[in-house]
Amino acid sequence: MSSLSLKFLAPSLPNSNRFRPTRLHAAPPQTVEPPASGATGIDLERLEPRVEEKEGYFVLKEKFRKGINPQEKVKIEKEPMKLFMENGIEELSKMSLEEIEKLKLTKDDIDVRLKWLGLFHRRKHHYGRFMMRLKLPNGVTTSAQTRYLASVIRKYGKEGCADVTTRQNWQIRGVVLPDVPEILQGLEEVGLTSLQSGMDNVRNPVGNPIAGIDPDEIVDTRPYTNLLSQYITANSRGNPAFTNLPRKWNVCVIGSHDLYEHPHINDLAYMPATKNGRFGFNLLVGGFFSPKRCAEAIPLDAWVPGDDILPVCKAVLEAYRDLGARGNRQKTRMMWLIDELGIEGFRAEVVKRMPQEQLERASSEDLVQKQWERRDYLGVHPQKQEGYSFVGLHIPVGRIQADEMDELARLADEYGSGELRLTVEQNIIIPNIENSKIEALLKEPLLERFSPEPPLLMKGLVACTGNQFCGQAIIETKARALKVTEEVDRQVSVPRPVRMHWTGCPNTCGQVQVADIGFMGCMTRNKDGKVVEGADVFLGGRIGSDSHLGDIYKKGVPCDDLVPLVVDLLINRFGAVRREMEEAED
């Protein structure tokens, strides 16, 4: 580990190092006493690793293949990473869809294994078209990268568009299989990758969206998230050590008191803390969403020095890879393993996989302030660099077209340093703008659509892809979220932003459980008994230091009945007043 040294390749202002993050070096951890062996009382047979390395890839052992789920069988039948690491995508891309459909092996390639390359076949609604998910650590991207992605989706006409995701990431739509090798090459040329971004892999590392420019930040998260991403993907060459996990796995690094990164819903969260005068991180583990269960991350009772974050990430991933269940997909996320072993039992397995089998206990010196009012990053805000500001733009439900991406790239170049930041609320920040240029930027036509000062109800609006493109979604989400919110906004005035999240199905990609008000797609019956699109309504989600997952408020509400329900909730729970009353008082 001590040989690792990676630098984040972020743009900086001409002739200036003021926005460039520091170089990170990994080093061996300090010596500490490991816990006594056998203290956890776990059956030793249960602790036998279920995978083994064969020909450079990790595969499930024969003795553990009984009762496994269909996705595990697909991985056993053919190693997904061979499509990338052994260039199998070249041959697959030359096959017609008719040829592909004739064989189960190639059909599974396009429907399942290509997700290891970030490609998701839209079989149900857009047969032959793919969504491509990138890796964009900390949500930082460049104008050149944005223009390249715009050029890719533009050729697909009405099928092509891009979405900002709830993990600070890009997803582009409309991709066809014959174009994939060329697109992958283009991504590499602009410093991007889509590798290991889907299925049973580590997802995009999330960090503070205003890292390095935040006047109140605890630590610049960019070097850490970049280090994690490069390590997990072996510098975008592919890292089979972490590509056969039981399920997906999320990681974040906290850099602000605002907890923009949502640590409570990540499998591993690095929480800033000092110990004996050294900077480092306490660790949370196990946070996740799924159709059957949602769980908040819990303390691992562990601390790692800030210059050595990789060994514990490796150890946690290996413990999960080696021991995680591979049966019912609804019970294969890492928290299920933690529940089975107990937190101390899980910690002991992590320690076994650490260098010298040592891991320090958590520090009591947390750096995140518990009583902190979460700041709004939309609008104009001063940076820590004197004379510069950043501007947060609201991207309605995260959907962007090619021409708009080109315009964002132009604005980043003309007014900033050629950099854009994506946020987990599906918005975009332009950093590093000289204060003298702010007035001109705010007059740009694009900001009429991507407003820095949207209506209060629009500020916190998030929506997943919905059934326009996603085969798993039960209802349409993006257009409906905008329509419902606009109608509600016409009826009531709120005193503060209210975060409303929409998700098309119980997989909850829209993260409805963290919203003030959440809507999860379902089918239900209206007052006439007709089956219609509806939503289960969630209430009470909180983010920040007082985080809490929301609960079901009302099930099976027809979508046509949501506006009056939301209006009543806003009046009774969030201090809203009806517009006619507000006007009368004026």
Automatic annotation (TrEMBL):
The UniProt record lists the keyword Ribonucleoprotein: no
SUPFAM superfamilies from the UniProt entry: Nitrite and sulphite reductase 4Fe-4S domain-like, Nitrite/Sulfite reductase N-terminal domain-like
Protein name: Ferredoxin--nitrite reductase, chloroplastic
Nitrite/sulphite reductase 4Fe-4S domain segment(s): 199-356, 461-567
EC number: 1.7.7.1
Pathway in which this enzyme or protein is active: Nitrogen metabolism; nitrate reduction (assimilation)
Keyword Membrane in annotation: no
Top-level taxon: Eukaryota
Family indicated by similarity: Belongs to the nitrite and sulfite reductase 4Fe-4S domain family.
Residue runs in coiled coils: none
Enzyme class: oxidoreductase
